[in-house]
Design a protein that fits this description.
The complex is a heterodimer of chains A (148) and B (183).
Chain A lengths: L2 H12 L5 H12 L2 H17 L9 H44 L6 H30 L9
Chain B lengths: L7 H11 L3 H23 L2 H18 L9 H19 L12 E2 L2 E2 L3 H16 L2 H12 L4 H8 L3 H18 L1 H4 L2
Chain lengths: 148, 183
Amino acid sequence: MTCEETGVLLSGLLDGRLSDEQAAALNAHLDGCPHCRRELEQLRRLEGIMKGLSLSQLPDQVWDEHWRQVYNRLERNAGYILAGAGATVLLCYALYAACREWLQDAGIPLAVRAGCALLALGMAVLTASTVREKLLTFRHDRYKEIQR
Amino acid sequence: MSVEDSSPREQELIRAASSGHKDAFGDLYRMYAPRIFSIASGLLLDRDEALDVTQETFIRAWRALPRFHQGSPLFPWLYTIARNRCMSRLARRSRDRECVEFDDRVGGETDHSTRTVEIRRDLARALAELKPEHREIILLRHFQDLSYEEIAGSLGCPVGTVMSRLHHARKALAAGMAPWKED
């Protein structure tokens, strides 16, 4: 076993994560290698320094206040979604009503009507394709909960 | 609470929160927000940003909760969200700002002795100088007391990688704590 191979095992030894075979091989190496023994000693000292220390925490009242902020944002988000959905429904209806009125207008030449109909159809196909792609990507995305 | 085993109480809260019960989500928030904050604070070295990340994490978690795999422990999932928020903030930064902050209490008692204060200060500085990936694994192992398996689950990497990364992180930290190594 080389010193390089020993390195990672030292951490495993500190954490009690080595198999009996690994521990035996490591101990055999340590017996004959003062460099690795010193490294193990330094890591043990570091463990000792960190033992008992904990990261500073905020008082409970901060979390109560913070939760109220989170709660308000969740509630507002629901409001944004509902308002957005309502606006979308109204917009779609307005577009439908405008198109129907326009198609019924006999004064518009047939070529213009046909061109507009094809344009609208093309836009619909593109939109449907994009939505389908997004849905498929989303379904197979392992990281969908994670921010982009 | 162990992050490997999801308790029945946690599962009950997750189910209720997934159905839209904000009070249940509030209980989950109180269970995990301090831990998420603690790691985010250690990673970002900035308490205000850590609070923002904690808030963003739970707002994203609320939206994604109906898709959460029931029965799984919540913490690794929450931590993955928080970690990504932290990493994207760190990537936008040119340098770290503050130091890791430790609790004044050591072993449950307040300790203001010169030696303890100096050790704490040097450890905070050495941790702040580590690469975020190294700082993160030290925080998870030593200050959140997670097992290798729990860390692997939280980081989405094999246990062997955890051991290897932890060793490199410890070596880097030991190098940064040089004055205390030979005591």
